[in-house]
Amino acid sequence: MAQTNNTVTPRVGPKGPSPRIYFTASMYSNDADTTGNLTVKAAPSSGNLYIEHVIVLADADCVSWTLNDDTAALIGPVELTATEMAHATDIVFLRPIKLSGALKIDTSTNGILNIIAEGYSV
Predict the structure, then answer these.
(1) What is the pLDDT of residue 33?
(2) Could you say which of 37, 46, 73, 80 is the most buried, measured as most Cβ atoms within 10 Å of its Cβ?
(3) If we measure between CA atoms, which residue out of 120, 121, 122, 119 comes closest to residue 53?
(4) Distance between CA 86 and CA 59 in Å, rounded?
(5) Domains in the chain: how many in total?
(6) Residue whose C-alpha is closest to residue 27's, from 7, 10, 44
(7) Range of the domain at 47
(8) Amino acid 8: pLDDT
(9) Global pTM?
(10) Closest Cα partner for 114 from 50, 38, 12?
């Protein structure tokens, strides 16, 4: 399984008792045989992750994925067919979703995936 994770922490929110630390995290799996629960953004040592924006791109005839944290499914399962491959799944949360652990994507079918997540930790 070939998986690449990247995290960029570009800015810190206003000063206060618990400033927000913003991030952009990405995970790319270039192995068509990759299945299972892959970590996109690890949980912080203290506090929680909040997800504001997620983009999922897949490159296969049929890919099924579920976005989750350490305890529950957040979105999915979502199944993309060959006719939907030309488009990315772009999700913006008007109210950020609080995670109880790491942000993960579960791929129950084989396929090449690229996911980009934006949010913050507090």
Answers:
(1) 52
(2) 80
(3) 119
(4) 9
(5) 1
(6) 7
(7) 3-121
(8) 52
(9) 0.76
(10) 38
Angle, alpha carbons 56-3-46 (nearest 5°): 80
Token pair belonging to 81 = 């067919």
Using an 8 Å Cβ cutoff, are 114 and 88 in contact? no
C-alpha 69/C-alpha 87 separation (Å) is 25
Which residue's entry shows tokens 């996911």? 115
10-residue averages of pLDDT along the chain (122 residues): 53 60 83 68 87 82 77 81 67 91 78 84 87
**Tokens, residue 73:** 């499914």
CATH of the domain at 92: 2.60.120
